[in-house]
Amino acid sequence: MFALKPIVISGREVLPLVEGGKGIAVSNGESSGAWAATGGVGTFSGVNADSYDENGNRIPIVYHGKTRRDRHEELIAYAIQGGIAQARIAHDIAGGAGRIHMNVLWEMAAAERVLHGVLEGAKGLIHGVTCGAGMPYRIAQVASSYGVYYYPIVSSARAFKALWKRAYHKFPEWLGGVVYEDPWLAGGHNGLSNSEDPQRPEPPRPRVLELREAMRELGLATTPIFMAGGVWWLAEWADWIDNPELGPIAFQFGTRPLLTRESPISPGWKQRLLDLGAGDVFLNRYSPTGFYSSAVSNRFLHELRRRSERQIAFSVEPVGELNASLSIGPRGRIVYVTPSDLARTEGWQAGGYTEALRTPDSTVVFVDPPKAQEIRADQLACMGCLSACQFSNWSQNEAGTTGRLPDPRSYCIQKTLQDIAHGGEVEDQLMFAGHNAFRFRDDPFYSNGFIPTVRQLVDRLQTGH
Fold first, then answer.
1. Concatenated DSSP letters for 387-432?
2. Do residues 450 and 412 share a domain?
3. 409 and 308 in contact (C-beta within 8 Å)?
4. Where does residue 98 rank: exposed (0-12), middle (13-18), buried (19+ CB within 10 A)?
5. CB 335 within 8 A of CB 364
6. How far is CA 182 from the centre of its chain?
7. 242 in Cβ contact with 5 (< 8 Å)
């Protein structure tokens, strides 16, 4: 076995092996409870989690409200109910071993209300809350008010120092650890800043060392750092373990736990993971959150790429090179484009892409009529799943809007993640994955299509592989 010493996480000595929380219904009570039962840290997703009726059947999420605000309130109620349900399942399966954490996104709808509701309804069942996708200043106050540890997800020392200065210094005893998530390798939404080049990845060690040095200056020398994103074999991280320069390190696995028997993803999704090749995970910026995210390159992402490529700038008045008139929309509104772009639109229209949809950036994209109908229907059906959504222009502010046009270059993230989580065709939905997912195909552990239990995976990780 690989030499792994227990470290204190959320008030107990556990294996420094952490299941990363993953999106809607992708890490749940069953998977996280099984992980905790091995003596590590299991993490279920608190983002619109599933709940069940008295017979154990999943309760379908159906919205009845006529307005976005009404549907937003329904979504919050579903989220709280589902989070409590998954916490109970995880607690029962763990059997008192390990630790149970809940993962939430700060940019999800009503994050604070959901946290209060779940932590109140599942008192004593959740030991820690991890939180990223934004700058979660208030996570410390919310978690500590329930005696629960908090774990911010950051991608730089600078981000953590900002969080500490603004809020965390008031609640230092409940800071259980800091999750460093590699913004170039992690799956899902990534913390790339405007100063970082998405095409030029930086090695994690100098960045984690910078984070540790900042934490030492704040009196946090023994607070664990979770290394997340790109972790596959611990043998590749041997020089991080018991390294006095880096301090206490735990390793968070997001992608590998997808391929376990307890993982709730569909058989088709699991098989797709086994078939991935190098480069099949695509870093993109189509998410309605505005963040970069990493997902498997499939028909869903291919269509989004092509949609944005069928895009031209326009003006409502002739100006400069924008002097060729173009009729768009059902009312035949005249806008002005360049002559070369006018020729391009004629080619797209000849190919069936006859619908021109305006974006917030004074451009139009061309799609075929069924796609235009789908985009409009999804925008109208918005249930306010994010604090602010570029796709639908929803915002949880008093006005209920971002004040910008809905952006047809994006998509309804709630719809696609619910669909893929509950058996939808994987080629036609958003399939988040880390950039090392291609390693499933060549890792001998998964030869002949072998899918381990969580315990078998954790045992394997402790061998270094």
1. SB-TTT--BSSTTSS-SS---TTS--HHHHHHHHHTT--GGGS--B
2. no
3. yes
4. buried
5. yes
6. 13
7. yes
Those residues with Cβ within 8 angstroms of residue 450's Cβ, 6 or more apart along the chain or in another chain? none
CATH number of the domain enclosing 447: 3.20.20.70
Q: Which H/E stretch holds residue 295?
A: strand 292-296
Query: pLDDT of the chain along its 465 residues, tens only?
Result: 678 999 999 999 999 999 998 878 899 999 999 999 999 999 999 998 999 999 999 999 999 999 999 999 999 999 999 999 999 999 999 999 999 999 999 888 899 999 999 999 999 999 999 998 778 889 999 999 999 999 999 999 999 999 999 999 999 999 999 999 999 999 888 888 778 888 899 999 999 999 999 999 999 999 999 999 999 999 999 999 999 999 999 999 999 999 999 999 999 999 999 999 999 999 999 999 998 999 999 999 999 999 999 999 999 999 999 999 998 888 888 999 999 999 999 999 999 999 999 999 999 999 999 999 999 999 999 999 999 999 999 999 999 999 999 999 999 999 999 999 998 999 999 999 999 999 999 999 999 999 999 999 999 999 999
If one counts every other C-beta atom within 10 angstroms of the C-beta of residue 20, the result is 30
User: Coil, helix or strand for 12?
Assistant: strand
Predicted model pTM:
0.95
The token pair at 249 is 């390190």
State whether 236 and 306 are in the same domain. no
Bridge partners (DSSP) of residue 365 are 311, 357
Domain that includes residue 173, residue range? 7-276+436-461
Q: Is residue 418 part of a domain?
A: yes
Q: What span, in angstroms and rounded, lies between the C-alpha atoms of 422 and 311?
A: 33
